[in-house]
Amino acid sequence: MLIDKLFKRVEALGLNLEGKTVLTEAASGAYVVTPLLAAIAGAKVYAFTRTTRYGTVEEIFANTKKLIEECTCRKLDITLIDKLTPEIIAEADVITNSGHLRPLNEEKLRYAKDSVVIPLMYEAWEWREADMDIGYIRKRGFRIGATNERHPEVDVFNYLGDMALKQIFDAGITPYKNRFVLVCNNDFGPHIAKVVAKVCEGLAVIDKNENRDKYNFPNVEWLGNFPEVKVPAEYKDAEAVIFTAYPFDQDWIGDNTSLDIQQIKAEIRDPYILRYCGDVDEKVLDRESVRYFPAHVHSGHMGVLPSAVGYDPIIRLQAGGLKSAEALITGKHEHNNISVLELI
Questions:
Q1: Which domains does the chain have, with CATH numbers?
Q2: 3-state secondary structure of 220
Q3: Which of 70, 75, 280, 334 stands the most exposed, by the fewest C-beta atoms within 10 Å?
């Protein structure tokens, strides 16, 4: 049962928000778990939502209430809201950097108490400037902490390979008996490679040369030299290019970009770009008749989300984000002798 997984993750992390007020989001799909995790940890929770392409306010409220009702062992203190009032913002000890609350700007945060903490809800290197007004946050002295997604009790990174496989299947192709090229410049690459390489004919990796030792997996051919795209003969007909580059909100593939589309076309016949994360210039790819998937990704966001492979990675991700909030409050930054956050 989903509720049982939430309780187990709170227990595994020793997550304790007793006596604290958390302002977070009520959201669709797997992200429905966020307010429940905070409440199970003892917090008074306000969960804000709004109508988006993912669901209406009414749908999100209904789905969240349904999950709350499944928790029969204790009453959870969760108030669902579709209006952010100064009073609610002022009451919060924790304001999560969650989708429906973004951007966390002066317009919202001017009502926050000086002691409020803001968990980033992802790793520090994934920082997106559009999420919050860092200048105002620094001015007010709010504490911000990023999640250590690689903590053993969070462990979100080990779902990255499953996500790559999900994207491959969603793109209408299969790894079996096919070769792929992974183009990457960030920490996602090795986690993608170790899973995809097990089930495909071969995986060639173009990454920064300093990352070579992170790819010691069977069936992986190291090419290196990111962002230069040069592949051996056996990869000229690669089924797809798995592409992930940071900063995620930078155009990486196009004209006069780090990864030049003409070079990709010269090296790979009929390239198919799987947009794991990192922006591409869709107009240029359309002009050059280069296939890509998904058809559209919001700038700075991933083309495949952890929620695509189920509730488990989201439970771990959101619980880890809330644990970083607890650490900011208590000053105890470790769980089981491993840091749970990185200060921003």
A1: 2-155+306-343 (3.40.50.720), 159-293 (3.40.50.720)
A2: strand
A3: 75
DSSP for 169-212 reads HHTT--STT-EEEEEE-STHHHHHHHHHHHHSSEEEEE--GGGG
Contact residues for 50 (Cβ-Cβ < 8 A; gap 6+): 57, 82, 100
In one letter, which amino acid is 161? Answer: G
For residues 202 and 221, is the Cβ–Cβ distance under 8 A? yes
Q: Which pLDDT tens digit goes with each residue over 73-130?
A: 999 999 999 999 999 999 999 999 999 999 999 999 999 999 999 999 999 999 889 9
Give DSSP secondary structure letters for 314-339. HHHHHHHHHHHHHHHHHS--EETTEE
Residue 330 has which token pair? 């208590």
Return d(Cα 110, Cα 102) in angstroms, integer: 14
Place of tokens 């607890």: 326
Decide the pairing of beta strands 251-254 and 202-206. Answer: unpaired
Q: Taking phi first (over 0 means left), then psi (-120 to 50 degrees means alpha), and beta for anything else, what does residue 239 get?
A: alpha
Using CA atoms, how far residue 196 sits from 44, 123, 185, 311, in Å, is 42, 23, 17, 21
pLDDT in tens, 197-227: 999 999 999 999 999 999 999 999 999 999 9
Residues 97, 121 contacting (CB under 8 angstroms): yes
